[in-house]
Amino acid sequence: ADSCYLDKLYVLPKRNAGTRLLASCFDVAHKIFHTNEMILEVWESNAKAIKLYKHYLFVPTEKMTERHFQSGSYKSYVMKCDNCVAALRIAMRFLGTTSTLAWNEYI
Questions:
Q1: How far is Cα 13 from Cα 35, in angstroms, rounded to an integer?
Q2: How far are the Cα atoms of 15, 23, 69, 78 from residue 28, in angstroms, in the given order?
Q3: CA 59, CA 73: separation in Å to the nearest integer?
Q4: Whole-angstrom Cα distance, residue 80 to residue 58?
Q5: What pTM was estimated for this model as a whole?
């Protein structure tokens, strides 16, 4: 696969849940889908998520048009990570593990 698309990652902001889930996604992208590229979409107003994604090597690629929902309209960015392996290493270092085999203790 050329890239994988991460769709809808919602977490409560505690115990590094976002980092743990992203690390698992990076691992799956590399080992299962045989790709080093991940793409996702994030709402423009979600500053915490944008900061997290940038920390794990995602960069904005383009601004999406508004999406309309019953609760209102939202603008979102498409962000792309070109190096899932490097992003996984950053996450593993942050979580204090050196092996992806240790994910069972985090999930």
A1: 28
A2: 21, 9, 31, 20
A3: 23
A4: 5
A5: 0.81
